[in-house]
Amino acid sequence: MSVLLMWAAGHFNRELTAHRWLYYPFSLLFALPFMWANLVSLRGIDVGWWWEIGSSVAIDYLIWIIQKRLKQQHRRRIILMQEANTDNLTHLNNFRVFNEDLMTAFKQYQTQGVAYLVYTFDIDHFKHVNDQYGHLEGNVVLERVATQLGQLVKGISTDAKAYRIGGEEFSFIVFDRNGQFEETRQVANNVRKSISELMFMTKAGEKFQITVSLGQADVLPEDQNYMEIYRRADQQLYRAKQFGRNRVSVLDD
After folding, report:
1. Is 100 tagged catalytic?
2. Which of the residues 15, 83, 137, 168 is marked catalytic?
3. Alpha-carbon gap, residue 240 to 246, rounded angstroms
4. Which member of 43, 47, 68, 109 has the lowest number of beta carbons within 10 Å of its beta carbon?
């Protein structure tokens, strides 16, 4: 019986500890074989059985309280980690994660030779959106762009990640160049076109669309630190802007 109860405790631990009305009866049932063994070995001698039962209940209660608080602390830690790594508005990974991922990718490139790509873009004339339609509408734009980007990266590579770098700037990393499904320029233009096709509507019923300018860079053997690839991608982004916006500038330009 004890073996069966131990199996049940291992397989249904989450359900048992989540509900007091399950936890306490199961705990008493679990302790019952040991109490019965004591009773038999002592041949019915009264050693304060009610005290033993009461002590068992008190210990079970303390264990349940401790376990509950540990779970609450664990959940709080998870929430804090998510908040530290996630952009509050768009729920994409934030610059902190972007920085850490760039560092990890660069180390992997140095040790294993896994080449990676960085794409970065921002919304053209975003200040005009805020000025004309208001900051709340501007926030809606950022949220929609983030959602669209999150969906797009899934079709770019099996190993890609999207980020909001800050303000109206977004990036995504393809961690293995060989795992990218399409050529660099095609990927960049697909992202640009997909976002430019988004339709926005203000509360007053006014419709508008946006465009983005996008830059891209590959990691290079001569790179001295992990941020150099991002600087090149950022330079390509501004090159795209200089040539009229709503366009891409990639490494082979």
Report:
1. no
2. 168
3. 8
4. 43
